[in-house]
Amino acid sequence: MSDPADPVVPQDLQELLAQVTVLAVTYNSSHCVAALAEGLRTLPHVIVVDNASQDDTCAAVQAQLPAAALVRLPANRGYGVANNEGLARVRTPYALLVNPDCLITPAAVGALVAAANTWDEATLLVPQLVDGAGHQQINYSWPRHAWRPRGGAAEGPLNVGYACAAVMLVNLRRLRATLGEGAGFDPRFFLYYEDEDLCLRVFRRQGQILVLPQIEVVHFSRGSVKGTRPWRAEYWRGFHHAQSKIRFQSKHFGAAAGRRARRRLLGSACLNVLARALLLSPKHLA
To answer: How far apart are CA 129 and CA 215, in angstroms?
Structure first.
């Protein structure tokens, strides 16, 4: 039974929302749950996969999203693996991946589904991400190894080569047709570059990645890592970002490219660590 305080969802929007399962992956994300739940609690299909959080994330999900299916993983297995666990449980035509640091509304979800129904050859669809002040973020581009990302350039629906998975609608039928048995994230990417790897695989097999700039979603970039221990969270964020970048280069451009990426990362870290330490910022020091 719905809460009397919940807003009434129009019938046409209900029909769109019935076609999609929203999938969120959490890890020590209790500080994000209440805001995220504001936009999700009226949706009929929600799955939260928790990566063995050490805070009260699971309790917050159960309190704020009691109708959601909560999947508790026994250990932190990474963002891609957790999403794959959730995707295996989806029974709707579409899955909407949503980071816990995003503010999504039923109207935005419905608009993404409506667009997927209109452009049914698209494999992946994304909105325009904006920050809390409404400024556009760079969340799509041509493949980033081939073209410098600028973002904010699309004035209408546009096929691109890369899109950030912070908010990403997946046409599951198209994904399986495009990637076959490899549909989903590569589990070797623990955190970061798993979406770039997925997009590049889809792009190389001529799958469509569609950006919809008229649909805007607020994304507090890296907000999900700002828990009670930000220094530790930022250190591991930086560590996994570097590891994944090296792995991405090695996978798609050969072992020599991976070694070059590793040397560049080590060199830049050595040159900058002292200056970054003086800034007393977890973000820069990591």
So the answer is: 8
β partners of residue 125: 169, 210
Cβ-count burial of 88 within 10 angstroms (0-12 exposed, 13-18 middle, 19+ buried)?
Answer: exposed
pTM across the whole model: 0.88
H or E segment to which residue 127 belongs: strand 122-130
> What SS3 state is found at 137?
coil
Length of the chain: 286
Residues 43, 109 contacting (CB under 8 angstroms): yes
CA atoms within 13 A on the CB side of 8: 2
Other C-beta atoms lying within 10 Å of the C-beta of residue 76: 18
Q: What share of the chain is helix, strand, coil (3-state, %, to 5)?
A: 45, 20, 35
CA gap 100, 68 in Å, rounded:
14
Q: Which residues pair with 216 in a beta bridge?
A: 128
Rounded to whole angstroms, how far apart are CA atoms 235 and 233?
5
CB atoms under 10 Å from CB of 135, counted, come to 9
DSSP per position, 39-59: HHTT-S-EEEEE---SSSHHH
Distance CA 26, CA 34 (A): 13
What pLDDT band is residue 91 in, cutting at 50, 70 and 90? very high
Mind listing the pLDDT tens digit for each residue in 194-237? Answer: 999 999 999 999 999 999 999 999 999 765 555 556 677 777 77
Amino acid at 123: T
CA–CA gap between residue 68 and residue 24 (Å, rounded): 10
CA atoms within 13 A on the CB side of 39: 21
Pick the closest to residue 113 from 17, 37, 215 (CA basis): 17
Nearest to 29 by CA among 63, 54, 66: 54
